[in-house]
Write the C-alpha cells for this entry.
Amino acid sequence: MEEDIQAIQRATEVASEYVVAYGFQFIGALIILFIGWKVANWLSNLVLSLCVTRKLDITLSKFFASVTKIIVLVFVGIIALGKFGITITPFIAALGALVFGSTFALQGPIGNYGAGLTIILTRSFVVGNTIRVQGVVGIVREIKLAHTQIINEDGEVITIPNNSVIGEVLVNSFSCLIVEKEIGIRYHDDPAAVIDVILSAIASVEDVTNDPKPQVGIDRFEDNSTRIGIRYWVPTEIYFETMYATNLEIFNALKRNGIEVASPRQLVELSQTEA
C-alpha cells in the first residue's frame, strides 16, 4: 500500500514538473497558432481583394491568396515549434525525403498539380472561356491545381485532370463556338443570290454573334452542284439551340426564294456476269 502511494506521488511530481516546464509553452504555442491563423486568413482575403480590385483573373487571384496564407502559416508553425525548443532542420530533411519518394509513387497526382500551376501562371485559358480538349467542349467553370472543371450546354460538369490538358492540343474559342455547315445548290441557281439569302437568314437569328461576322461563300464545285460553305459563331451555352434555330431559318428562306437544295447523286455500277 505504501509503495502504491509513493508511486502515485512520483507520478504527481513528474506531471507537476511537466506542467510547470511546458504548460506555459503549450499555451503560448496555442495562442501563437490562433493569432497566426487569424492573420493568415486576413492577409489572404486582403490579397484576394487587391487582385480583384485590379481586375486580375479570379483563378490567379485565388492562387496568390492561397500562397500568402500558406507562407504565413509555415512561419507561424516554425515559431510555435520554437516554443518547445524544437528545431525544424530534422523536419525539413524528413520532408525532403518524403517529397523525393512520393514523386515516384505519385507521378500522376503530382503531375496534375504541376500542370495546374502552369495553367494558372501561363493563363492559356481562364474561367468563362470556351475550350475544346480531350474530345470535350464546354465553358470553364473552375481551375484548381489538380483539375479543371467545365460545364456543357446540358449542364453536365466535366472534370479534367490538368495533366491531361497540358501537352494536348487545346482550342480556346473564348465565349463562342463555331458552326460549320454546307449545302449544295443547282448550277442554274445564282450563287451570289443564294449567299445573300443565307446571310439574311442567319442575321435574323438573335443569338448568332456578329463578332466575328458570319461567313458564307462558294466552298467547292461538284459534278451536280455548287457547294456553299456556311460559318457562324454562337454562344457556347446555347450552341445546339441556336444552331437548330438557324438551320430552320436557312431552310425556310431558301424555300421562300424558290431555291432547291441539290440532292447528292449516287453512282451505281452494274456489272454483268457472263454465264
